[in-house]
Design a protein that fits this description.
mainly alpha
Length: 327
């Protein structure tokens, strides 16, 4: 075989290897961090640690799934952390006077209401998603402080079932983790096999073309913000069940973690691209980073630096992949 043919084969191999890494970078990063974590700490793969890790990421995971749907349409939701705090406070406030089923309904409905209003501002009044959800972030956080009078509220004794759920297990997996997994599967099926998932993906890719085809873009954009608000409220409830306290300061920075998980999962901030499974992996990647740094007694501040570096790396990979696809 001639040298030129060897060179051509080598270039072809390198190109395919590079494309494989780019297309499956989330999975590769996940397994790399998994291997590094196992080698850095022998405690990592213990049942106790894995249980704590999955319980800790369940709440942020729910908010990330909602964020994924919003980002796929080309939007963003900065209000998820504040909604989580507001829902948790409402749960604690009503836990002593209201049937538990109604408490759940009120708490989740409050998140859906805030998310729907954000979607209304974005879809109907064409307000920039960043501005609309930033305003709702401030409003929801303020409502959380008003409802709680600025102090954490303990769940009432009548709500002991909530605490049992937050600390309970089924088949060795915590109940909140089951909720996260079920929601992730539903979202994956929705995006891949349902017309709603195809429409919101198309909106993120080319909103004007979808509008010209006769599809009601506004109602679909509003719906993803409503879903995001509902899942953020559910995330706040899980935190309240786990701690037994509804606090107005819960969820500070949650929106950044959710965005980070979605971006690490390969979703495009420009819209039109993203999967629930990769978002799930993104959530686990962030969780493992925090978990392993805690196990080796590294302060929390470097974790923020590492998250920022990973986000930059993920966005650069997306740009490189986009250029490769065009070529």
């Amino acid at each position: 075989m001639k040298y030129s043919e060897h060179l051509k084969l080598m270039r072809k191999f390198l190109k395919r290897t590079t494309m494989f890494f780019i297309e499956h970078n989330t999975m590769i990063i996940f397994f790399l961090i998994l291997i590094i974590s196992a080698n850095v700490s022998e405690v990592f793969f213990t049942q106790t640690n894995l249980s704590n890790l999955t319980r800790q990421v369940a709440g942020i995971g729910l908010a990330s799934i909602g964020m994924l749907l919003v980002i796929i349409t080309g939007g963003i939701d900065l209000s998820v952390g504040s909604i989580a705090a507001m829902a948790g406070v409402l749960c604690a406030v009503f836990s002593s006077t209201t049937p538990l089923s109604i408490v759940l309904l009120i708490s989740v409905a409050s998140g859906i209401a805030v998310g729907s209003f954000s979607g209304y501002l974005v879809a109907i009044h064409k307000m920039a998603p960043f501005i609309a959800t930033l305003a709702m972030m401030t409003i929801a956080r303020g409502l959380g402080f008003i409802f709680s009078n600025g102090a954490p509220i303990l769940l009432a004794d009548e709500a002991s079932a909530f605490i049992e759920f937050g600390s309970g297990y089924w088949l060795g997996i915590a109940y909140p983790v089951w909720i996260f997994l079920v929601i992730s599967v539903i979202c994956a099926l929705l995006l891949r096999h349902h017309i709603f998932g195809r429409i919101i993906t198309a909106i993120g890719s080319n909103e004007e073309a979808v509008r010209l085809s006769g599809i009601r873009v506004g109602i679909h954009k509003l719906s993803v913000y409503a879903i995001s608000g509902g899942l953020a409220a559910l995330s706040g409830l899980i935190t309240t069940f786990r701690t037994g306290v509804g606090s107005p300061i819960v969820g500070v920075g949650m929106e950044l973690d959710a965005i980070a998980a979605v971006v690490i999962g390969g979703a495009s901030l420009q819209g039109g691209k993203g999967t629930a499974i990769n978002t799930l992996l993104g959530v686990l990647i962030l969780g493992m980073i925090g978990n392993i740094m805690n196990l080796i007694s590294i302060p929390a501040y470097p974790q923020q630096v590492i998250k920022g570096v990973i986000i930059i790396f993920a966005v650069l990979l997306q740009k490189f992949q986009s250029k490769s696809n065009h070529n």
